[in-house]
Amino acid sequence: MSLYKKLIREHLQSLKPYSSARDEYSGKEGVFLDANENPFGSVAGKDLNRYPDPYQWEIKEKLAALKNCKPEQIFLGNGSDEAIDLLIKAICEPKRDNMIILPPTYGMYQVCADIQQVEVRKANLTGNYQPNLEEIARIVDELTKIIWICSPNNPTGNLIEGYIIEKLLNQHPEVIIVIDEAYIDFAEQPSYINRLSEFENLVIMQTFSKAWGMAGLRVGMAFGQPELIAMLNKIKYPYNLNLQSQRIISEAIDNVEKKDAYVEKILKERLKLFKKLMELGIVRHIFPSDSNQLLVKFTDAKAIFNYLLDKKVIVRDRSNVVLCDDCLRISIGTQTENNKLIEELQAYN
Ligand SMILES: *Cc1c(COP(=O)(O)O)cnc(C)c1O
């Protein structure tokens, strides 16, 4: 029996999904009188009167070439948040199964699990923000279905060590190991997409929201075995990615070098900001970052956060988060924005 035959919730395996007009006829040519669309045009926007491709094949062909994988290994969603939600829905039986998160980490894993009444077990990262393998081994059991690894991690900014990820993949072959690579474009390390053929239990998530600069569009990606991706497609809303998003994403992929140029710029700004922050007396520590955020430990994070708010500089207060005492998370801005931040911090006393 295949891994996903075992892992996917039983009632979903026999679920009969909605069959859309575009499922039943996927050809491009013809007189389309099958979807109750307005044949004349759109009240606003350009040519939005037709339903979009439910499986976004054109984008997936381009992405597959860019990411060196197969189109059938790609799921596209309304932000990676949709992929997170659907993965839990597909695999975890409410009030029975559990999943493991590694705090401090991205908040949506827990929220999606809570909504679906799936138990969340926590194995806090170690002092240098790496997974605690002993603690994970202690809390994992036969009802653990997913372990969420965010690398580079949010809010700490660092990559998770490759040998630790491989250990988890090997030690728990029947648990899905998700690597959330929302910030991978900012890191030196290659994506784990290259390893999909080695590990059946591996799932990778990425997004167009960060390096690609398209957070407002809401498009995220998941990469995994075709069997799992097919299930995510089966349980998603039929037209989860709207036509406008599909057009813009397709155009973005054709211009990937623009994304790379943004990354270069952001990395340069990160280094400059890092150096300037280091010179401040109120900064106690800056954690090494492989992403577009700096986690900074201050003398008094709460007071500095409120002071900055008052100056209309908005950073993220993470001081109440486990292992982030007195820390603010600062997204890398433009040169002007970063200078404003530094000026206000220099004036703080
Ligand atoms: C920003 C972020 C996402 C993102 O999501 P979208 O829903 O695609 O905007 C996912 N994971 C992490 C860790 C993030 O920081």
Secondary-structure map:
Layout: H1 3-7, H2 10-13, H3 21-24, H4 57-67, E1 74-77, H5 80-91, E2 98-101, H6 108-115, E3 119-122, H7 133-139, E4 144-150, H8 162-171, E5 176-180, E6 202-207, E7 220-223, H9 226-235, H10 243-254, H11 256-278, E8 283-286, E9 293-298, H12 301-310, E10 316-317, E11 327-331, H13 335-347
Parallel strand pairs: 2-3, 2-4, 4-5, 5-6
Antiparallel strand pairs: 1-7, 6-7, 8-9, 9-11, 10-11
Helix pairs in contact: 4-10, 5-6, 11-13
The chain binds pyridoxal-5'-phosphate.
Pyridoxal-5'-phosphate (PLP) is lined by residues 79-81, 106, 150, 154, 180, 182, 207, 209-210, 215, 220.
Family: Belongs to the class-II pyridoxal-phosphate-dependent aminotransferase family. Histidinol-phosphate aminotransferase subfamily.
GO molecular function, one term: histidinol-phosphate transaminase activity
Keywords: Amino-acid biosynthesis, Aminotransferase, Histidine biosynthesis, Pyridoxal phosphate, Transferase
Q: What is the CATH fold-level name of the largest domain?
A: Aspartate Aminotransferase, domain 2
Order of helices and strands: HHHHEHEHEHEHEEEHHHEEHEEH
Based on secondary structure, the structural category is alpha/beta
Strand content: 5-15%
Enzyme class: transferase
Pathway: Amino-acid biosynthesis; L-histidine biosynthesis; L-histidine from 5-phospho-alpha-D-ribose 1-diphosphate: step 7/9; Lipid metabolism
Subunit structure: Homodimer.
Pfam families: Aminotran_1_2
